[in-house]
């Protein structure tokens, strides 16, 4: 390699720039779901791995005698974690390459999120009145369908309080802003 070859290569991006781009993309993806804000779900990103956090709020309690997190809130938390994981996996390469402009990124400019076909929840124990965490693992993701498994815990990762498996319809690949415009017009 000659000295001139070294000078023509672009310098690697500073790690902080890459992290900011990833965080903005994730924020745009999550902000497209109003129910996420209502439930108080947040996402922590480490590289390409996401951890969903359901912040404790008294409105989440379904059985005040125990008290226990409502099963519907638990199911919504697991399903949301699965959908965001699928959406994140879909935009990851465009975020990494810089093909998605994070400065102008909005929920409308991102590809549509997958739609749920079915979602099954196994309630393993009562969800206690405290923060809960979940991670989703994509079992299979094809052009049209995807299967995802999600596990939720509170204090100890090895003591799950719920898990779920869902099947999703994947939107067409080229359906970001163009599809949003078609839907509005």
From TrEMBL:
Pfam families: 4HBT_3. Residues 68-166 form the Acyl-CoA thioesterase-like N-terminal HotDog domain. InterPro entries: HotDog_dom_sf, TesB_ACOT8-like_N. This is Putative domain 1.
């Amino acid at each position: 390699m000659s000295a001139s070859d070294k000078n023509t290569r672009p310098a690697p991006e500073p790690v902080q720039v890459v992290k900011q781009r990833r965080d903005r993309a994730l924020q745009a993806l999550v902000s497209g779901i109003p129910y996420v804000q209502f439930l108080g779900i947040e996402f922590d990103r480490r590289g390409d791995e996401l951890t969903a956090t359901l912040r404790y709020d008294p409105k989440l309690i379904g059985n005040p005698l125990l008290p226990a997190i409502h099963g519907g809130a638990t199911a919504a938390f697991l399903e949301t974690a699965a959908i965001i994981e699928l959406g994140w996996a879909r935009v990851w390469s465009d975020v990494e390459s810089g093909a998605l402009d994070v400065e102008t990124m909005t929920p409308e400019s991102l590809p549509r999120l997958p739609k749920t076909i079915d979602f099954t929840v196994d309630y393993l124990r009562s969800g206690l009145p405290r923060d809960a965490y979940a991670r989703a693992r994509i079992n299979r993701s094809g052009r049209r369908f995807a299967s995802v498994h999600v596990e939720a815990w509170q204090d100890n990762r090895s003591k799950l309080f719920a898990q779920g498996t869902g099947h999703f319809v994947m939107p067409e690949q080229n359906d970001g802003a163009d599809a949003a415009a078609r839907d509005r017009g």
